[in-house]
Amino acid sequence: MESSFDANENKYKEIYKKKGYTSNYILHQNKLVDVSDSKEFKPHEVYVVARYLFEGIKNPTDTSVLYILKTISGSKGTFLQRNNLKKDRDLAVSFFDKIPQKNISKEDNLL
Questions:
Q1: Distance in angstroms (rounded) separating the CA atoms of residues 38 and 16
Q2: Which tens digits make up the pLDDT trace of 4-46?
Q3: For residue 69, how far is the Cα from the chain centroid?
């Protein structure tokens, strides 16, 4: 994906933080968890509003994916999928593949 922005996850996270996407999420036991309040979300309770792929600077195969998300509770934030550990990558792919297509848009995509 090409962009006029610096291809760096932190820069994108800061841009979205200014737009109200302040929550940070992790995956735990096949659920998305808001780090700030430990609320858990199943795939059908999550909305993907943008997704960005980043290649590693030193190693192009070292990729990561930044998801910009909203949840059914109204929280908005980011999830960073690092692809350097197969287990973590497989967990993220499994979760995000279960999000219904109707919950995926590009409404807040910066590109």
A1: 21
A2: 444 578 899 999 999 999 999 999 999 999 999 999 999 999 9
A3: 6
- Bridge partners of residue 81, in order along the sequence: 65
Whether the Cβ atoms of residue 96 and residue 48 lie closer than 8 Å to each other: yes
**Half-sphere CA count of 2, side-chain side, radius 13 A:** 0
pLDDT for 1 beyond 50: no
Q: How far apart are CA 63 and CA 41, in angstroms?
A: 25
What token pair was written down for 56? 């590693």
Instruction: Report the helix count and the strand count for the chain, using DSSP H and E.
Output: 2, 6
Q: CA angle, corner 42, sides to 38 and 46, nearest 5?
A: 90
